[in-house]
């Protein structure tokens, strides 16, 4: 026994050498190998010395000799195993260098003393990685060797490719959730049923039930720390995250209407001047913006303090996807997305909706002013008029000081006028809206407002909204995380798009940090994207766009009919599909032109955010036809967590840039989000039918092959 204790002591010394060597892999693999060989030689000599000094009786000698031989063989095998690992590990991959020794001891009492035995190196490496995550100094080690790539089945009928990232329990849960979503009665009353369940079961049991069903399927976790395992597993199967803190207020229709009306009307009153457009004024019948909307979250303005909290929440999302540890000191795990993550935000979360309504009306009245002055249609820059052209239209007014001052502030370049107003000043927080949006009357030369007088307090609120957005985007740029600004209702969208484009101009100078969202169910989508692409080209900034079908179609149609303005929505589903494909094709055409001219094709970045596999197939076919590869990193694809896994995961595993929209938040506070997901799935029964079929095929396959306890483990690296 004394001999065994002695050998154990020497073996401990060897493990210490192992751990020190393994912690410093990044310094030099050859130095590590030499250290292992020296430690092997030293330990063997020590064991021989111990054996030589332990000759007492023949029986003891035989027993000690056998024990020493066994231990020595095991140690040599372990040396060989570690040596192989070190040789096969690329320099700089793994735990990382540093002077700090990451040895961890296990303490056990023996004869009144503490004996110390080092944990094996593999355990030390794992513990060190966890320690580093807690310190926020390192991310998970990148997979070694060549990244795995699978061929893509563009029919999206391969259940193995679709669900190899899932445990069997997760497949069963998904199947159960989709079965529930197929029941119209259950889905229609899902919010009521969830509230009843909470009252009957109590908070604890209700939380457990939700995590085992809807919450577990559609939501990644409760906070930035608890979502880390989901993000890491997604990445290991080639999929990247778009993070969204999905906490929503569960307020009544009456409360929603009250808040919306109060925050959409100026303290000076809802003044409808000559030329006012009814769609840009609040109507109580549609004040609850959740009406007939199942696939988008709605923010209702309460006060400026709430907007500040929303800004902080968005910044926390940015930090959760950032791998820039030096700039983001925190105790949670860092780098789970390896710098490929995106955060989604809504502008209505950052300010008073009245300001977006008024700004949207200004933009549309400016377009109307240009059409009346020069003919034609569309955005100001599409007219391709110059300052001299404007001077001609105002020539009858003579040497008018108002006109001269107005022309000095017009934004133009060698190709013509871009904007009638200095939008750069507006997003730089220092312009007064009431003084900015004025144009000369072509008949009298008098300046007339395109916006009603805004009280000083509301001017300050607008500057606060722009300041919050600037803070978020600046943080995103510093952390190298991208921002996707969601599209909203058409009566907000002109202002949202205009502000987003100015943020692109300001921050997308070296890469696409800010992305705008375009809803292709709108009749003007193609023209709007074309106009914005033109502005990006002329002002030389990177253009980012997320293309979606849209979330507000039924509400938009009903509101247009009730208020008497033209329906902004395409007449049919097929027309929307055509609009989507036409818009995507135009973006791809411009990317190809840039590649052919030797320009940086990444100056245009497009996300195909669609659950429609025909649209995804169309995008892939177009990429192949015009010679755009996934490695060009100009096209990516996105779907919601828990929906259409049979599209997202095969794309990621085949080397395409694939994203999942990742909601997270406490169980009770994401119930409105879960309710909307159930409603949305009810509306896409055809997709559910296919997903259920593929789920059942994979569950059956695992049962037949004895893979019931399959553990997902991927070696894919996202583009």
Automatic annotation (TrEMBL):
<dbReference type="GO" id="GO:0071949">
    <property type="term" value="F:FAD binding"/>
</dbReference>
<comment type="pathway">
    <text>Amino-acid degradation; L-proline degradation into L-glutamate; L-glutamate from L-proline: step 1/2.</text>
</comment>
<dbReference type="InterPro" id="IPR002872">
    <property type="entry name" value="Proline_DH_dom"/>
</dbReference>
<dbReference type="Pfam" id="PF01619">
    <property type="entry name" value="Pro_dh"/>
</dbReference>
<keyword id="KW-0642">Proline metabolism</keyword>
<feature type="region of interest" description="Disordered">
    <location>
        <begin position="130"/>
        <end position="153"/>
    </location>
</feature>
<dbReference type="InterPro" id="IPR029041">
    <property type="entry name" value="FAD-linked_oxidoreductase-like"/>
</dbReference>
<comment type="function">
    <text>Converts proline to delta-1-pyrroline-5-carboxylate.</text>
</comment>
<keyword id="KW-0274">FAD</keyword>
<feature type="compositionally biased region" description="Polar residues">
    <location>
        <begin position="52"/>
        <end position="63"/>
    </location>
</feature>
<feature type="region of interest" description="Disordered">
    <location>
        <begin position="52"/>
        <end position="75"/>
    </location>
</feature>
<keyword id="KW-0285">Flavoprotein</keyword>
<feature type="domain" description="Proline dehydrogenase">
    <location>
        <begin position="230"/>
        <end position="688"/>
    </location>
</feature>
<protein>
    <recommendedName>
        <fullName>Proline dehydrogenase</fullName>
        <ecNumber>1.5.5.2</ecNumber>
    </recommendedName>
</protein>
<dbReference type="GO" id="GO:0005739">
    <property type="term" value="C:mitochondrion"/>
</dbReference>
<keyword id="KW-0560">Oxidoreductase</keyword>
<dbReference type="GO" id="GO:0010133">
    <property type="term" value="P:L-proline catabolic process to L-glutamate"/>
</dbReference>
<dbReference type="GO" id="GO:0004657">
    <property type="term" value="F:proline dehydrogenase activity"/>
</dbReference>
<dbReference type="InterPro" id="IPR015659">
    <property type="entry name" value="Proline_oxidase"/>
</dbReference>
<comment type="similarity">
    <text>Belongs to the proline oxidase family.</text>
</comment>
